[in-house]
Design goal:
This protein is α+β, with helices and mostly antiparallel strands. It has one domain. The protein is built from six helices and five strands, in the order βββαβααβααα. It has a three-stranded antiparallel β-sheet with strand order 1-2-3, sandwiched between helices. Strands 4-5 form a two-stranded parallel sheet. The radius of gyration is 20 Å and the shape is globular. The protein starts with a strand and ends in a 10-residue tail after the last helix.
């Protein structure tokens, strides 16, 4: 799981369409329309992801997304392994601030939270998906939250239909070399 803030930007002038012998022309001026947030959950080996556009990224927003993960995405799961970075909102405390204690405890007991190491967010495969989303559908300015939601939903639907998996090639042996300071020494 990861999230990405997104600046909402509107064009201030109409683009001039390309004509034979001329490229498309547009002005560099734009109008800032605020920000939005994209929460992304991915199941890398099954080629499944869920993206949600929200107006902000608060503890309550994150807690609501976790509730959706547990109750809607994986209602039959006994345990959900959730890999995420060390952002301050990514903690069971957010669930307890948002929900009644019994509900928060129910959600926490379904989760196995695995934080990525500090400076190791590249180990979070959701970062790979966010990068793909950025390159494939978020290159242009997005004027408002509904337009962003439309772009993200179309991208998510296409990736899920094609079952785009992540071919993770970082092995435990590679990890022992790259992250040698974090692994205990193994004596033969």
């Amino acid at each position: 799981m990861d999230e990405k803030p997104r600046q909402l930007v509107a064009e201030t002038r109409r683009r001039l369409s390309a004509r034979p012998g001329c490229t498309e022309r547009y002005d560099y001026e734009y109008r800032r329309q605020g920000t939005a947030n994209i929460f992304l959950f991915c199941e890398p080996l099954k080629g499944r992801r869920r993206a949600q556009v929200t107006g902000r990224r608060t503890r309550q927003d994150w807690a609501e997304e976790i509730r959706r993960l547990v109750d809607e995405d994986y209602p039959e799961a006994e345990r959900i392994t959730l890999v995420l970075d060390n952002l301050n909102v990514h903690s069971p405390a957010s669930l307890y601030e948002t929900f009644a204690p019994a509900e928060a405890r129910r959600l926490v007991e379904k989760l196995e939270i695995v934080p990525t190491p500090k400076h190791g967010s590249w180990l979070n495969m959701a970062e790979i998906e966010l990068s793909a989303m950025e390159k494939q559908c978020l290159r242009e300015h997005t004027p408002d939250e509904p337009a962003l939601r439309h772009q993200v939903e179309a991208w998510e639907r296409g990736r899920n239909q094609r079952r785009m998996v992540i071919n993770w090639q970082f092995t435990p042996a590679d990890a022992r070399i790259k992250l040698h300071r974090l692994y205990p020494q193994i004596k033969a």
